[in-house]
Amino acid sequence: MTPVKKKTHQVILPDYWAEACAHLSKRDRIMRRLIAQYPEGCLESRGNAFVTLARSIVGQQISVKAAQSVWDRFVQLVPMDQWRLKPESVLSLSIEQMRSAGLSARKVEYIRDLAAHFADGKIRSAEWQQMDDEAIIAELVAVRGIGRWTAEMFLIFHMFRPDVFPLDDVGLIKGISQVYFSGEPVSRAEARELGEAWTPYRTVATWYIWRSLDPLPVAY
């Protein structure tokens, strides 16, 4: 992973991005067009596991734009750099304060439970690098509010695992429908079959599918 100074915080970029783009361009002509269409930017991480998971919870079942708006209001409640947001700071907020940012009662509950797991040391983050994707997912889904989709977002945006393919993601399925099937409905089985050509870089292909839907890159 390569650290890059950007704005007021350090952004971390995956080392495999150029190799992945070359592989995808060779295997898939439509993906080659997408990669050429969006030459700027790539997957980014802020290096903060708690922030990535909290943002993923905020983003559940709402648009990227709406999620960013809620997150911006939420972090304003804590007087510190949002990229260094600490679980203890979240636990110091009242439920009413968190609701005022636009979070639903359930998402407030989930984010507080996540913060408690981090604060109590129940999440074994020091061991994640040695664990495979499914093992990390199994550990994360034990936290309230974290399902497979949220765990996969974490694998993509924090762990930089290169071959994650989040078939539960509405944006991914919508993008595949628009880019590959002229807007016709696409089943999970059809999406999975299409994605076989993108292995071992399905994470990167997913990012470009998302990019085709939104003028701003997805970030957590």
Automatic annotation (TrEMBL):
HhH-GPD domain sequence ranges: 58-214
Matches recorded under InterPro entries: Alkylbase_DNA_Glycosylase/TA, Alkylbase_DNA_glycsylse_CS, DNA_glycosylase, HhH-GPD_domain
GO cellular component: protein-DNA complex
Pfam families: HhH-GPD (PF00730)
Entry superkingdom: Bacteria
GO biological process, alphabetically ordered: base-excision repair, AP site formation; DNA alkylation repair
Enzyme Commission designation: 3.2.2.21
Protein known as: DNA-3-methyladenine glycosylase II
Gene that encodes it: alkA_1
